TrEMBL record:
Belongs to the peptidase M54 family. The lineage of its organism: Eukaryota, Metazoa, Chordata, Craniata, Vertebrata. Keywords: Hydrolase, Metal-binding, Metalloprotease, Protease, Zinc. GO terms for biological process: proteolysis. This is Archaemetzincin-2. PANTHER family: ARCHAEMETZINCIN-2, ARCHAEMETZINCIN-2-RELATED. InterPro entries: Archaemetzincin (IPR052009), MetalloPept_cat_dom_sf (IPR024079), Pept_M54_archaemetzincn (IPR012962). GO terms for molecular function: metal ion binding; metallopeptidase activity. Its cofactor is Zn(2+). It comes from Podarcis lilfordi (Lilford's wall lizard).
């Protein structure tokens, strides 16, 4: 294992900046906000810890990238910021989600509400789910894992046509595995930052995906007719477990973060860290480090305390908020599975203690 430990001076410069104007902007945060943000460079902070690499296959080891401090983010001419005319995040579900216990609508509402808390101040809209056949995209059976896959690039073209005029970005989400081109085995997601679009699959977040018991494995290995989408009818979708919901929240907010112009974080443990595999993704925390938090706050202008309160509230709401009209017997099935969020909830509570003491 290798710990990436930056000096106090380096972390302070990455957060506050040596640019006089940006340092003056930092002084506009109130003392409690600065108390939390300054944890980034406080020696021995229990809130924001150095990144630990566990193997050479981890992202930073295998994908060398330049770091991005606050000043580089702030002055980036290519980054996009919401405007009064384009200030909504749209999420397009593709294919079916959920199982007999949790419907697509319920799962999507959990993701929508979490995304609105994370990108505090923006409105998130869930578009009506569409079957794969409506996208017209190519598909295949993976030659190694024998599961269905759909073409990520073609899905981006489909999303471009569907992007509403008031959208800051549109992201497609699916429980079906993705591939970017014939020579690739798979891809977790693909994005066009200039177009404000992304497509992401949660298929490999199913705990059974890599096991011999995976129910999405197909027996047929022959080439499928390109226009016969009947193979997707009744295709397996995993149970919406607490761990799958946690992984989905991480991925969705991480990838939308890229559309805002946030690069992979190499400063501290952060949801914007790159990940090369599921084990590494699971090690990432659910929220941002102070450097990335300042980047997002500068783009959206939210109150830091109110954002943390919104995240805490989401983790305290066990129901979906859509129980109206349901029988008392049906309501328990709408419980939001929050067991996997306990560590994140405790961490947010500690951050709130700093902001409210």
């Amino acid at each position: 294992m290798k710990v990436i430990k930056h000096s106090e001076e380096v972390l302070k410069a990455a957060l506050v900046s040596k640019d006089t104007q940006l340092a003056k902007l930092y002084e506009k945060f109130n003392p409690k906000e600065k108390g939390l943000l300054n944890e980034a460079f406080r020696p021995g902070s229990v809130l924001f810890k150095p990144i630990t690499l566990h193997s050479e296959s981890d992202w930073i080891s295998s994908h060398p990238e330049p770091t991005q401090d606050f000043a580089q983010f702030y002055h980036d001419p290519c980054r996009k910021t919401p405007t009064p005319q384009k200030n909504r995040i749209y999420v397009q579900p593709i294919g079916s989600f959920g199982d007999s216990r949790v419907s697509t609508d319920v799962y999507m509402k959990w993701l929508k509400d979490y995304c609105e808390a994370f990108y505090y101040g923006l409105i998130v809209r869930i578009l009506g789910p569409v079957p794969v056949s409506h996208t017209g995209c190519p598909f295949r059976i993976n030659e190694n894992t024998y599961n269905l896959q759909i073409h990520a690039g073609h899905l981006l073209s489909y999303l471009k046509k569907k992007k509403p005029k008031d959208a800051f970005c549109i992201v497609g989400v699916t429980m079906i595995d993705l591939y970017p081109k014939d020579s690739w085995n798979f891809v977790f997601g693909q994005a066009s930052l200039t177009e404000g679009m992304g497509i992401f699959s949660f298929a490999r977040y199913d705990s059974d995906f890599y096991s011999a018991n995976y129910k999405g494995t197909l027996k047929a290995t022959k080439k499928l007719p390109p226009s016969d989408y009947s193979v997707f009818d009744g295709y397996y979708t995993p149970e919406i477990t607490s761990k799958l919901l946690l992984r989905s929240c991480k991925t969705l907010t991480h990838e939308i973060g890229h559309i805002f112009g946030l690069h992979h974080c190499q400063w501290l443990e952060c949801v914007m860290q790159g990940s090369n595999h599921l084990e590494e993704s699971d090690r990432r925390p659910l929220d941002l480090c102070p450097i990335c938090l300042r980047k997002l706050q500068s783009a959206l202008g939210f109150n830091i305390l109110e954002r943390y309160k919104a995240l805490q509230k989401w983790m305290e709401e066990e129901a979906t908020g859509t129980e109206e009209g349901l029988s008392s017997e049906a309501r328990p099935s709408l419980q939001k599975p929050l067991e996997a969020f306990k560590e994140s909830y405790d961490w947010i509570s500690k951050c709130l203690e700093v902001l409210q003491k």
